[in-house]
Amino acid sequence: MIQARNICYHYKGCPEVLKSVGFELEAGQFLAILGNNGAGKSTLLKCFNGILKADSGEFLLDGENLMGMTSREIARRAAFVSQTVANTQMTVHDMVMLGRRPYMKWGVSEEDHNIVHSAMERLNISDLRGRFLNQLSGGERQKVMIARALAQQPKLMLLDEPTSSLDISNQYQVLRIVQDICHNDGLAAIMVIHDLSLALRFCDRFLLLRRGEVYRYGDCSVLDARAMRDVYGVEAKIAELEGRRIVLVVQ
Amino acid sequence: MRSVRSQLENKGQNSAYRKNQTRSIGFLMLLAVLLFASALLSLRAGSYNTPVGELIKGVFGLSADGKINLVVQNNRLPRICTAILAGAGLGLSGCILQAILHNPLASASTLGVSQGATFGAAMAIIVLHMGGGLGISLLSFAGSVAVALIILALSRFKQVSPEGIVLAGVAISAMLSGATTLIQYFANEVELASLVFWTFGDLGSTGWDDMKPMALVVAVLIVYCVLHRWDYNALLSGEETAVSLGINVKKMTVFNMLLCCLTSSIIVANVGLINFIGLAAPHIVRRVVGNNHVYLIPGSILAGASLLLLSDLLARTAIAPVILPIGAITAFLGGPLFLYLLFRGGRSK
After folding, report:
1. CATH of A2-222, one of 1.20.1250.20, 3.40.50.300, 3.40.50.2300, 1.20.1070.10
2. If DSSP codes are grouped into helix, strand and coil, which group holds residue A247?
3. A101 vs B248: CB contact, 8 Å cut-off?
4. Which of A49, A73, A94 has its CB closest to that of B233?
5. Per-residue model confidence as pLDDT tens digits over A176-200
């Protein structure tokens, strides 16, 4: 289980961005952090794995407080997929191998190789193994980043707008993979995303942030017309189409 | 797990990866052979013409001719070792600076470390009227360390971005070049000649004892970088990803900059200004092996050492017995080579 309790954060010389944020998430669940620009979504995500140091509060992962751990210890428990995808002249295999960095001592072991192969198999990118990242499409590169995160063997996956630079087909592919990993492998995933319909399609839990505070937290029912008005300042309807909820902005 | 890997290998999905690996390892071996061949040629070059067999015996002091032992052990071998050490150190420093500053133009010379050394030498020769020896080396070392500390302070306390640091290096270089020119304006002819000779760079004046600090710092740099090779790879994915992989990026940046600047400053203080090796060596290797530092680090060491050794060989043999300034040779040959690589890359894209 993942628990965030009373998380506060402020950037140097600025007012508080996160004000006593808290929520709980079970293993195997996929959480979407939603809110308008500047609500503190990415800040909260980055506080989880030590990219930013929270002013106060605690992040508990199966009872262990991540905030008291070294960055290497955190990296063995929580993997991060950024919105900016590496575009460098490094092979897919080597990039996925980076996920083993928190476990490496002097070099790469046979076990590391096996885990990397399994992660690539899981994402169905084994045939790209010898290709350089800068020869791949955006969707393929994002899959490589998720494979790298899987190679970290984490209990929690953190995704910062992973679909922001992808076309609609790749958006669905990538999120379906993450959803599948959560539901079948028992990993928890927390994702910052702007596309509400995509969030409703793939996520199980929703955390709505407004001006650094939790506005609402729960299942898809938290995202209603009033929440849209209060959080985003727009008039919207939540419609159902073939059993799926979608957001229609009216005004 | 084992079966998954075997299955993949059986399907032949690894062929492209294996091809890349083979190409990278093959290129490293080629560089090692080039370095060995350059060392042999360099051992042979000189007015004292001797068969290679005798020269190799001379390396171990086993030649029947005592003069050969003397020339090899006191003259040619220290020169070769200095070139290898300096080239390896400059090549590796450039490779690491480029990785931690996320900038392909980063090197000791573009960050102003080399210009700091020149300014220190100018102070020693012209302002303090030091004739030569240890005083010039110490002040040139102090000059480059001072620049390294300014760069570090900008990085650490002012949170200047990696791109900003390189721009700051360009500004510091320009400022120090101007200050050096001003000092030169007030110099007499002898002092001016002495400073100009120092800036030419000279691999021949370093003896076994002078080489020890250089050897120590280059060895420390190599061991450290090889042990942290995967950390440099992680930095390629961005600072946030590197932190999420368990790397203390700020600490790593500061420590690596300190180590690289220290290495470059000790090399410049010993052999004078040798530009371009730190910039060109990693780029040449990168074009073949890519950005994986598992191959890029040894490649930059070997390429840097080979480039400097070959440049020195050319400097000694082009219009022998006159020995041309090594700094000018590296810049003169390296510049067009670098331009060729850049434009060739542009066309292929």
Report:
1. 3.40.50.300
2. strand
3. no
4. A94
5. 999 999 999 889 999 999 999 899 9
